[in-house]
Amino acid sequence: TRTAPTVERAAGNADNDAAAEDTTDAAEDSSAPVVEEETSSAPPIDGSTASAVVAEAFKYIGVPYVSGGASPSGMDCSGFVQYVFAQVGVSLPRTSGAQAGAGYRVSAAEARAGDLIYSPGHIGIYLGDGQHIAARNASTPLKAGPVYMKNPTYIRVLG
Predict the structure, then answer these.
(1) DSSP 137
(2) CA 10 to CA 22: how far, in whole Å?
């Protein structure tokens, strides 16, 4: 029997969370989850659903960033993740912090395409090989590219 990792809410500062390269998720609250490392109990990724997530995510390349957006007319980071996963039948919470607490933490070495990649205030979909796809900020439409976050957390929700 596997158990979900313990998730604790730690007080955070939205200004500090915004220190990442891109803007923060507008719907995000000012606290970020602390997900304890439990890689030994993380399930293997469901490969067919992960492939479907990645294929679905690529359909939205070029969609404009819209703060609070969660549809193909415009999305923020967590709206994009929630929308893509919903298209393949997986329900996720709306904010990046809640999405990061929705699965199992895996190490960077264990991360696979279809996992979430999270840093306080930002979330995307990991593509493998150091790449991710995300809605990043108002000046950049949704795109795929190298992971730029320092020490991101990888979250497996498809296990």
Answers:
(1) B
(2) 22
- Mean pLDDT throughout 93-114? 97
How far is the CA of 83 from the CAs of 17, 20, 42, 73, 124, in angstroms? 23, 23, 24, 12, 12
132 near 117, Cβ under 8 Å?
yes
Tokens standing for residue 125: 């979909």
Q: For 55-74, what is each residue's pLDDT tens digit?
A: 999 999 999 999 999 999 99
The model's pLDDT over 9-57, given as tens digits with 9 standing for 90+, comes to 223 333 333 333 444 444 444 444 444 444 456 789 899 999 999 999 9
> Which residue from 143, 124, 48, 128 is spatially nearest to 88, judged by alpha carbons?
48
Report how far apart, in Å, the C-alpha atoms of 33 and of each of 17, 28, 60, 119 are: 12, 11, 27, 10
How do strand 32-35 and strand 7-10 relate by DSSP bridges?
antiparallel
Tell me the two tokens of residue 118.
Answer: 């999270």
Q: Is-contact 4 124, C-beta < 8 A?
A: no
Contact predicate 156/118, CB 8 Å: no
